[in-house]
Amino acid sequence: MVVHFPKRWAFLTTLSFLAAVGVPSAFADSVGAPFSPGRTFAEKTGEALYANLCQACHMGEGQGAVGAGRYPPLARNDSLRANRYPIYVVLHGQKAMPPFGGMLSDDQVAAVVNYVRTHFGNDYKDAATAEDVKQAR
Ligand code: HEC
User: Fold this and answer.
1) Domain 41-136: which CATH class?
2) How many CB atoms are located within 10 Å of the residue 26 CB?
3) CA dist., res. 5 & res. 1, Å (int)
4) How many CB atoms lie within 10 A of CB 59?
5) Where are the domains of the chain?
6) Which of 14, 33, 79, 126 has fewest C-beta within 10 Å?
7) For residues 13 and 19, what is the distance between their CA atoms, to the nearest angstrom?
8) Do the Cβ atoms of 115 and 46 come closer than 8 Å?
9) Please, which residues have CB within 8 angstroms of residue 90's CB and are 6 or more apart in sequence?
């Protein structure tokens, strides 16, 4: 025998189930868009910023990746020689790379740029400053 519940009852049951297991809010938290506008990041060191923001695309050793897209290596990269260029790319994005200017302070941009310019086989000694970043915004 098939029991027919009134439609309204079934609807309320679904609602209370979702409320009980907390699906909508937990889901929204776990998949919250990492680069959504208005988001900011607490990390301060270049290393932590790189790990959280850049590594997914440019990889752990800055080696880049080729697959569904092309993510250029930052390792041993002559384009990082002048700090203006990486500052610009991080602030404003470039093609498939998202802009980070709205999410990072001048200090944070300088920190992550200095990190990639002094790691992964790069050894550029002239550190970028927060002032350099401010002027490139
Ligand atoms: C969503 C993937 C993604 C993320 C995250 C990302 N990048 Fe990129 N990045 C790219 C792509 C794709 C390019 C190539 C853009 C182009 O075609 O000009 C690029 C280019 C660059 C370049 C220029 C390299 C060159 O040789 O011209 C630098 C520097 C760079 N990224 C640094 C960073 C830093 C630092 C971060 C973290 C703050 C970061 N990227 C985060 C995808 C990403």
Assistant:
1) mainly alpha
2) 10
3) 13
4) 16
5) 41-136
6) 33
7) 10
8) yes
9) 100, 101, 104, 109, 112, 113
Residue 65 · residue 54 · CB < 8 Å: no
Chain segment 2-47, per-residue pLDDT in tens: 666 555 544 444 444 434 444 444 444 444 566 776 789 999 999 9
Ligand 1 atom closest to Cα of residue 86: 29
Cβ atoms of 100 and 91 within 8 Å: the answer is yes
Residues having CB within 6 Å of any atom of ligand 1: 53-54, 56-58, 69, 71-72, 74, 77, 79-80, 86, 89-90, 94-98, 100, 112, 116
Residue 18, CA atoms < 13 Å, CB-side half-sphere: 8
Q: Which residue has the tokens 């250029």?
A: 72
Q: What's the token pair of residue 131? A: 């002032």
pLDDT in tens, 73-118: 999 999 999 999 999 999 999 999 999 999 999 999 999 999 999 9
Q: What is the CA radius of gyration of the chain?
A: 22
Atom of ligand 1 nearest to the CA of 80: 29
